[in-house]
Amino acid sequence: MIISWFLIAVLLIELGALVRAGLGGPNAPSRVRLAVVVLEALVTVIVVRALVGWDAWTQWIWVLGVAVFCAGSALAAMRWRELPTIQHGSATWRTAGSVVYAAALVVIGGAVTLSFV
Fold it and tell me: How buried is 79 (Cβ within 10 angstroms: 0-12 exposed, 13-18 middle, 19+ buried)?
C-alpha cells in the first residue's frame, strides 16, 4: 500500500511538472524537452495504472490524473509553436541525452502497456 501511495505522489509531481511546462515553466525551454516532459507524465500515468492497487480512492485519483494529463498536454500543444526545436546555447550532448531518455521512456511505457495484455 505504501508503494501505491508513493507512485501516486510521483504521478502528482510529474503532472505538476507537465502543467508548469505547458504554462511556460523553465523545465521545458525547447520542443525536445517539452516532448520529454509529456512522455515522463504519460509513462507515469501508465505505470501507476499498472502497479497501484485499486480501491475507491486510487481509482478516482487515477481518473483525475488522466484528466490533468490531458489538460497539461493541451497546454503543451498550444505552447509548441513558440518554442525552438533545440534550446539555444545548450550542448549537443544534452539534446542527444534528452532524445535517448525519450526513447527509453517509450520503451518502458510500451513494456508496461504490453503487461496489460
Answer: middle
pTM, two decimals, is: 0.87
Give me the helices (H) in the chain, please: 2-22, 31-51, 56-79, 92-114
Please return the burial class of 114, using the count of CB atoms within 10 Å of its CB with bins 0-12, 13-18 and 19+. Answer: exposed
Residue 42's SS3 state is: helix
Apex 102 CA angle, 101 and 106, nearest 5: 115
Q: 27-60, pLDDT tens digit by residue?
A: 888 888 899 999 999 999 999 988 888 888 888 9
Q: Are 21 and 76 in contact (CB under 8 A)?
A: yes
